[in-house]
Amino acid sequence: MNSVAVPVNEDDSPERLQRLEGLAARLLDACRAQGASQAEVSCSEERGLSVGVRMGEVETVESTRDRGIGVTVYFGKRKGSASTADLRESSLEATVAQACAIARFTEDDPAAGLADAELMARPGPAGWPDFDDWHPWAIDADQAVDLALACETAGREADARIGNSDGASVSTSTSLSVYANSHGFVGSERGSHHSIGCALIAGSGEDMQRDGWYSFALAAEDLDAPARIGRKAAERALARLQPRPVATGEYPVLFQAEVARSLIGHLLGAVSGGSLYRRASFLLDSAGTRLFPDWFSIHEDPFLHRGLRSAAWDNEGVATRASALVDGGVLQRYVLGSYSARRLGLQTTANAGGVHNLQVGANAGGFEALLSGMGRGLVVTELMGQGVNTVTGDYSRGAAGFLVENGEIAWPVDGITIAGNLRGMFESIEAVGSDVDPRSHIRTGSILLGRMTVAGAD
């Protein structure tokens, strides 16, 4: 853990949420008065502070306060939406009127409408669950600058070969949101997010390498100490010095945890409702089929304590539920909101707005254990470019990392390309490590693929 001090100011979030709930109720009444058969309203407020330093000097200090109001109305199967950040009555009335005008002049869409009323989340006897995701950090700009400077200084002083810096940053934000609809659902949420990060440059002349590290958490006390982050950034930059070429060929490839979650992200993109009903996915009609080895699993847990995406309802008010996305290597379901579900003739999976806290099951030890088991291969620590085709599954991306010989890191490599097809890549997963990166709602350890094509220096 860390030594970051966490002062606390008086919390006015309950009163602010009440005001947002009252505003949402008034807007819903205004939508009904305009003749809307259904309506939904979202209201949000955000406050934040971010600072950046570089080479021991302050570069940026930014304080933000944002708010937004979104109104969506339905006249039968016709939909209209409008938004504003202006809370004056005249602006709110104009926003409702604009949404209604749009709906009146659009064509019918058979899939349009709120999620079904019987699917709405309801509080239990003790009320809504508490996910412990509200931890405001009462830090001022001077304190944030001090932390950023401590982070960068620790990294720059870690080794004489750290000759430059891309800077260090500290940020904190809180958000309040209310979603309400004409089914009678009203849901209020609040959350906090904090981060400390640093990027450093090692070497000189043509032999310079950049890398960094960061810590991200809902509560400031869960952040790594600034000095530790700085030293980790230095260690990573130094490890990349004097890269050597690697021959073109086929290699086992180990995606380190922080990049491994991108593989799961590609799966999510292919099984999301929008890609499926547009027929723009290589995984069309794949629910119920085996895509991964029979030991592989991905579980969604919306109720995780201090989870980065914990929620009792999705963006449409539908009650969330814990369920398997992949079990026994078989894709159990798609990722759907109500609109995409109707387009596909299915039912929403309570994923309007995205997935909640995915856990990829591990079948191996930590990173070192995966290294020792792969013999000769490639560790990928950074991915570049956007060479992923969701329609065909073809995958080709620039990468950097390390060559592995006899189960140990031999030397750094960069300027390579790794390629394959996602369906084949999923099938060739040999291991998932226990070294979970906690900085994402996709919680996975490193992922080892048995074979990928690597284009190297030749």
TrEMBL record:
Top-rank lineage group of the source organism: Bacteria
Molecular function terms from GO:
metallopeptidase activity
Q: Where is the Metalloprotease TldD/E C-terminal domain?
A: 248-456
UniProt keyword Hydrolase present: yes
Concerning InterPro entries, the annotation shows:
Metalloprtase-TldD/E_C (IPR045569), Metalloprtase-TldD/E_cen_dom (IPR045570), Metalloprtase-TldD/E_N (IPR002510), PmbA (IPR047657), TldD/PmbA_N (IPR035068), TldD/PmbA_sf (IPR036059)
Which EC class is this protein assigned?
hydrolase
List keywords of the entry alphabetically.
Hydrolase, Metalloprotease, Protease
Any idea of its EC number?
3.4.24.-
Annotated Metalloprotease TldD/E central domain ranges read 135-241
Which residue range or ranges hold the Metalloprotease TldD/E N-terminal domain? 39-103
Query: Which family is this protein grouped under?
Result: Belongs to the peptidase U62 family.
PANTHER family xref list: METALLOPROTEASE PMBA (PTHR43421)
This chain belongs to the protein called Metalloprotease PmbA
Gene name, please? pmbA
